[in-house]
Amino acid sequence: MPYITLYISTLFSFLFIDILMIKNIILPIFERNLGNIMLESPRLLIALLFYLFYVAGILYLSAAPYLKGNTTLNEAVISAFIIGLLAYGTYEFTNYATLRGWTLQMLAVDTLWGGVLTATSLFIGLKITKLISG
After folding, report:
1. Could you give the C-alpha distances from 2 to 6, 67, 85, 103, in angstroms and in order?
2. pTM for the structure as a whole
3. Are 114 and 84 in contact (CB under 8 A)?
4. Using one digit for the tens of pLDDT, what is the confidence trace for 53-62?
5. Closest by Cα among 122, 113, 126 to 19
6. CA distances from 43 to 4, 40, 49, 60, 120 (A)
7. How many CB atoms neighbour CB 101 within 10 A?
8. Which of 29, 75, 80, 100 could staple 71 via S-S, CB 3.0–4.6 A?
9. How many other CB atoms sit within 10 Å of the CB of residue 80?
10. What's the rounded Cα separation, in Å, for the pair 88 and 93?
11. In the chain, domain spans
12. Is the pLDDT of residue 1 over 90?
């Protein structure tokens, strides 16, 4: 039961926080630099698939060791932060290296955001799970 609660609370935290950031900060930066190649409507099913698998990966790599007592909460959150930097950084650094119009600002903002979002979502998910499961 704690893993289901953890997955759902982490996923919803991730989605809620990311949607706010995308709408208010990420999207305007991307539209300014890549507006002519962006889709008018994002492929939401593909985005949802990413979110579903990504959160499962975070839980497997960062939360499971914590729940088993093998790491501290701080270590779990730092691990999630590093995973976020690596995942978002892979996307950003590759695009910056290969695509015209990709900027250092986009690379920096989105890579850092990946780390912060991943760590924050995991932290919230763990706290909610602890509250509900005891």
Report:
1. 6, 9, 26, 41
2. 0.94
3. yes
4. 999 999 999 9
5. 113
6. 26, 10, 10, 26, 25
7. 14
8. 75
9. 29
10. 9
11. 2-133
12. no
